[in-house]
Amino acid sequence: MAQKLKNEIQKGIADAGLRAFAEQGYQNAAVADVARAAGVSAGNVYRYFMNKKALYDSLISPDFVQTFTRLLFQRVHALSGVEDIEGLAPNAPFHLISEELFLFCLENRLRVVVLLARSRGTQNEHFAEELTALLIQWAIAHFEALDPKLEMTKVKKFALEKIYRNYVLAWVECLEAFDGEREIRQAIEAFSRYHLAGLKAFFA
């Protein structure tokens, strides 16, 4: 009788795969590395996942990517028409969705790291670049709505690209640098305050 597939073994392989992708990147992580970290043979990995791509797809699913993108969009949209974030009430939509996004990232810390920075060689290889472009579009639209006379020069667009590349990278580094909720929250909140204040000054 064929040995039954055990949920705990599959979970152990998935957890090891997620750590390997987060630490080494999808391209560099080998099935042998995953097997060794999970304490199983490489052949056993293939019993649960057809190949490395199938393992990645089980971890960074389209639903996960869609949820992450939706939360980001909702956070940005919650700032529509807002000139002074500091003046928002604690229960303002922006703060509520920011908390939801934070908790999602905390719960899926390594998945977010893989999606934003370790997915080269997958269908999500350009996700961070596409996200950066969207964030730039949203920022320009937001400040143009506040100031219809705003002029976006080539230099300003160049600067915005650098700003948002660093913004996305900062989220990755905050999630990688700390394990505890308190420290991750403090790091992200500190950088977000700096980022939002900087944007306000940039478009002034």
Please state the oligomeric state of the protein chains shown: single chain
The residue fraction in helices comes out at: over 70%
Radius of gyration, in Å, reads 20 Å
Question: What is the tally of helical segments?
Answer: 10
- Beta strand count: 0
Would you write up a description of this structure?
This protein has ten helices and no strands. Helix 7 packs antiparallel against helix 9. The mean pLDDT is 91. With 204 residues, it is mostly helical. It has helices spanning 7-24, 31-38, 42-48, 52-59, 62-77, 93-107, 109-117, 127-146, 154-177, 181-202. The N and C termini lie far apart (72 Å).
In short:
The protein has 10 helices and no strands. The chain has 204 residues and is mainly alpha-helical.
What secondary-structure arrangement, pairings included, does this model have?
Elements: H1 7-24, H2 31-38, H3 42-48, H4 52-59, H5 62-77, H6 93-107, H7 109-117, H8 127-146, H9 154-177, H10 181-202
Helix pairs in contact: 1-2, 1-4, 1-7, 2-3, 5-6, 7-9, 8-9, 9-10
